[in-house]
């Protein structure tokens, strides 16, 4: 219930104005977001890589409504990839891209062209691109774009969301050799017709999908902070004899950093999803919806009136 309210608020420009201008917001945002500019992103990437982690960078922004905004997002990514390359941070750092930020909602061809330009720049920089997955109305379009991009850029990563009923079947489709697939639970409010509603059903689906990916020929990227699912991931890695370079764990910046360090210390590849940029509102609200206990941070910051 609280989750749905927070996710509804994530689409409200009135609430956005309220949250964005509140004096305490800065501290809360800082916990989950590297900063607003490319320099902040590079600094945080350097620190994470020095700690033995790998990184995927997300230039925050989604649901652009004009071609100019979409082109500006593309250009941000091109500049970021050049900067990562110049700083010697590739291939430890790749990028995650939302097609809605590249124009998907009003011009799929434009979104594809922009994503392709980012894939070309990533190839030149010696790294990879992963296409984030958004709400279920975009799943087919995103997977179609993935198939097109993979023709010239086979390392382009997909994201599949275990809460969608279709995902086990999508995992089978995408478990082929060389296929990079991030498996996550899913972060949007979805109707019963397309998505499992209870945490238990989502977890069971996650395990079925994880089994398909880990027993397949691709490169699974297990994106979760859930201790039980991480333990199952470790178990399946042993069972299917996958070494550290043959799959990876992924977690979000600022969430369970000790667990990220523990897994990296065990020799696993661990990738931190590192968001940066001005447009942090939707991202922050999804993190709050996942764990309403995070509202306590808001509460504390509000109480201290910083
Ligand atoms: C690398 C990465 C990429 C992602 N990409 C996408 C994507 O493209 N599309 C998409 O829909 N979703 C994406 N997600 C989000 C994902 O779908 C989930 O919403 C999110 O990861 C929470 O699910 P969980 O598996 O961690 O399990 P949960 O059951 O939500 O959490 C398990 C435990 O993790 C900790 N935890 C989880 N979330 C938080 C939080 N916000 N703050 C503090 N602690 C927390 C808590 O200890 C919690 O008990 C991504 C997640 C990761 C890690």
TrEMBL record:
Which reactions are catalysed by this chain? L-proline + a quinone = (S)-1-pyrroline-5-carboxylate + a quinol + H(+)
What EC class is this? oxidoreductase
Cofactor(s) the protein needs: FAD
Q: Any keyword Repeat? A: no
Keywords for this entry? Answer: FAD, Flavoprotein, Nucleotide-binding, Oxidoreductase, Proline metabolism
- Per the UniProt record, one Pfam family is Pro_dh
Classify the source by domain of life. Bacteria
- Matching SUPFAM superfamilies: FAD-linked oxidoreductase
Q: EC number(s) on record?
A: 1.5.5.2
- Gene3D superfamilies found in the cross-reference section: 3.20.20.220
Could you tell me which pathway this protein works in? Amino-acid degradation; L-proline degradation into L-glutamate; L-glutamate from L-proline: step 1/2
Q: Which InterPro entries match?
A: FAD-linked_oxidoreductase-like, PRODH_bac_arc, Proline_DH_dom, Proline_oxidase
UniProt keyword annotation of Oxidoreductase present: yes
Question: Which part of the chain is the Proline dehydrogenase domain?
Answer: 42-297
Looking up PANTHER family in the UniProt record yields:
PROLINE DEHYDROGENASE 1, MITOCHONDRIAL, PROLINE OXIDASE
For this entry, the protein name equals: proline dehydrogenase
What organism, scientifically named, is this protein from? Micromonospora humida
């Amino acid at each position: 219930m609280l989750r749905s309210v927070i996710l509804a608020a994530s689409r409200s420009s009135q609430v956005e104005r309220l949250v964005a201008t509140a004096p305490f917001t800065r501290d809360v945002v800082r916990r989950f977001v590297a900063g607003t500019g490319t320099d902040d992103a590079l600094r945080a990437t350097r620190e994470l890589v020095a700690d033995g982690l790998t990184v995927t960078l997300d230039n925050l922004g989604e649901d652009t409504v004009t071609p100019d905004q979409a082109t500006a997002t593309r250009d941000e990514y091109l500049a970021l990839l050049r900067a990562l390359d110049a700083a010697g941070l590739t291939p430890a750092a790749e990028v995650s891209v939302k097609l809605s930020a590249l124009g998907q909602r009003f011009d799929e061809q434009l979104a594809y062209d922009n994503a392709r330009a980012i894939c070309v720049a990533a190839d030149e920089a010696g790294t990879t691109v992963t296409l984030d997955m958004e709400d279920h109305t975009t799943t087919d379009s995103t997977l179609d774009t993935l198939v097109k991009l993979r023709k010239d850029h086979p390392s382009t990563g997909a994201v599949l969301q275990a809460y969608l009923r279709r995902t086990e079947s999508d995992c089978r489709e995408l478990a082929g050799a060389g296929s990079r697939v991030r498996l996550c639970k899913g972060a949007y409010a979805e109707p019963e017709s397309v998505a499992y509603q209870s945490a238990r059903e989502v977890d069971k689906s996650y395990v079925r999908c994880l089994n398909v990916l880990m027993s397949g020929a691709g490169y699974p990227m297990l994106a979760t902070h859930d201790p039980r699912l991480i333990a199952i991931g470790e178990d399946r890695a042993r069972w299917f004899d996958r070494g550290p370079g043959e799959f990876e764990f992924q977690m979000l910046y600022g969430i369970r950093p000790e667990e990220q360090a523990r897994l990296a210390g065990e020799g696993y590849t661990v990738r931190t999803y590192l968001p940066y940029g001005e447009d942090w509102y939707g991202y922050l609200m999804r993190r709050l919806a996942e764990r309403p206990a995070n509202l306590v941070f808001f509460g504390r910051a509000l109480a201290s009136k910083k």
